[in-house]
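Hello,

I think I submitted the sulfopyruvate job twice by accident. Can you confirm which output corresponds to this input? Input:
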Amino acid sequence: MTAGRRLRDIIAREGLAHAMAAHNPLSARLAERAGFHAIWASGFELSAAYGVPDASLLSMTQHLDMTRAIAERVALPVVADIDTGYGNAINVMHVVAAYGRAGVGAVVMEDKLFPKDTSLLAGGRQELVRLEEFQGKVAAACAARPDPDLVVIARTEALIAGAGLDEALARAHAYVAAGADLILVHSKQKTPAEVMDFAARWDGSRPIALVPTAYPELTEAAMKATGKIGLVIYGNHAIRAAVTAMQEVFAQIRRDGGIAQADRRIVSVEDIFELQDVPAMKAAEKTFLR
Ligand code: SPV
Ligand code: MG
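Support: Only one job matched these inputs. Its output is below.
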């Protein structure tokens, strides 16, 4: 079964699918073990992992290579963040075909101008492309997907750009008309009120996807209760957790002038071997090394 089919089945079965961000296969494997339904191949996380702003600075190839590596190392469907689609509708066809071949279950494409700026940045450049242009890009994504079940998620940044709820709803309807399977509506308001208003006014023709980074108090139970939200993406909790842990451990080692105390707080080298599937390699050695 393709990753797209599996993602569709999870949404149908669970009502709400939850995806955890990852910036490499190891973080994706940890998310898989924690019980998430899907992996969010986040542009923000990968940009941060490279130490650069999430502003269309990484190439498609950099993101695609990491996304492919993730998809190869987890059984979960991967939801790929393709930003603005790296250009116009023709670029989008090339991009979606390549991500489809890499085995992702979904692509998320946003209606901002290339080069984009990251959504949650105070004072960020948030310029939308024309609605018709983005409809063409959504239709191009649908036409180019190598698997008809690959989920095409159209993301409107209308609320992020300050264009208001009416504009967000108009764009969402237009993107569904162009073929979108889900609508991601992003918001940087500190409460869920804005996205809940969107959900209340949404016709439910396609499920909504949310990234609740800015309004973390919105629970999965509350999302499910709307009956309209089909996917929640935890957009940056892998990289933030990694930074928290590294800061604490690095500081301790500098404080102590050695690793003895820090060693007790972190997983063992054997735990990492296990995450690398070393035991399976050792078993294969017994069979095949002669
Ligand atoms: C990402 O994780 O790359 C996203 C979500 O697109 S956000 O950073 O909130 O824009
Ligand atoms: Mg992104």
